[in-house]
Structure formats: structure tokens, C-alpha cells
Design goal:
- This protein starts with 5 loop residues before the first strand and ends with a helix.
- Helices cover 45% and strands 11% of the residues.
- Strand 5 and strand 6 form a beta hairpin.
- It is globular and about 65 Å long.
- It has 2 domains: 157 residues, Rossmann fold; 58 residues, DNA polymerase, domain 1 (Orthogonal Bundle).
- It has a 6-stranded mixed sheet.
- The longest helix has 17 residues.
- It has 11 helices and 6 strands.
Amino acid sequence: MKDNTIYIFDSYGLIYRAYYAFVSRPLINPQGQNVSAVHGFFRNLLFVIKKYGATYAAASFDSREPTFRHLMYEEYKANRQKTPEDLHAQVPIIEEILESLGFPILRVSGVEADDIIASLCGHCSSQKRQCRILSSDKDLMQLINDYTRMLSPDKTEVWSEVDEEAVLEKWGVPPHLMLDFLSLVGDSSDNVKGVAGVGEKTALKLLTEYGSLDKILENAEKIPGAIGKKVVA
């Protein structure tokens, strides 16, 4: 039976990872251009095709315009450094090669690659179709379920499959509570603040006791001490 699993590339995540993996010894082509990200991206693509026999795949990219999150919250990702010029210059090369290969490129104005990935994973789940996300982004772990897994590289570029049990072991919460967990503790990589004074241990304690962020907010006035007051605020 033909495997109809869909493999979705978190393109910018993989591009950035490849670029910085070679930042101290970049790969330079005969024209003097840094092509580390190009090399790393397509090495990963070929790895997936070879190891998993991928037949269905797509590369998801962020919108070129500000997203709805930037419009809602001006400080969103404002703490991030400007993308290096020699990294930025490699993105059109990667897109051109993908187009030449007939590889689907997914981009929607005003939304992030994560949103596209979430929509596609949701569709796969509704169709009971297997889906694999190629990424190391913790934000995408909330999508993991019976049909969706992540393929994530470690620091030595060894790829492993991340399932519901792996998320629980690493973060202390199942995938469906990752959004609630990050809402409480905040996400410094996106410059999004959580509840002041609530760290990972406190967030886990609250989620274990009340079951969800909605339930925590419903019972905020009953939570004793300073934490209850901070949640109410």
C-alpha cells in the first residue's frame, strides 16, 4: 500500500538552522556567495525523501508582509536581531530550486509558516491522514496527535520523531496543553510575555490542578497567595 504521509517543511526554521550550523566556517560557492543555508536545506530535503520514501511534501514559508500578530502586538518578535544579509540572499535561491523541482511552496500573505502548517495538519487529522512536520520549533508541538508527529534534529543533526509521549517527557504537559503552558510562562523567542512571576514549575502545578488555562482563569480568585493575584491581573 502506498504511503500517503505528508511531510511539511518549516522552511525558515530549517534555513536558519543550516546557516548558523556553518556560521564559523560558511560554505562559499565559486562566485563568493555563502550557500550554507542552501546546502543544509536541500540536504534535509533529500534525507527525508531517502529515509522515509516521502512522496507528498511541501515547503511552508512566512508571509513577506507583516502578519496579523504584528498588527495585534507591535512588540511581537521585536527582540530578534536583523537577518544577516548573506542568509537573506539565500532564500530566493532556495525558492528558485524548489520551483525548478516542482516542489510545492506554501505562502499566504499576512500569516506565518506555522499557521499554514497548523491548517494542513488539521486537515490531515480530519482525514485521518498521517502528517510529519520537519522542525525544531516548540510552538509546533501543540499540533502533535495521533496523526501528526514532528521530525526534529538535535545538535548533532540526528533526526528523531517527536510524539505525544516525547512532548510530555520534555515539557511536562501533553501537546494539547502546550499553548496554555506557553501562555502562562511566556515565550522569549517571540518576545511574548507570560504571567509575571509564573515560571515553568508554577505553570505545571496550575495546569495539573486545574486542567487548562481557561479553568485557571475561571478559578483565578480562588488561587491562594501572590500567584492568584497575578493571574487575576
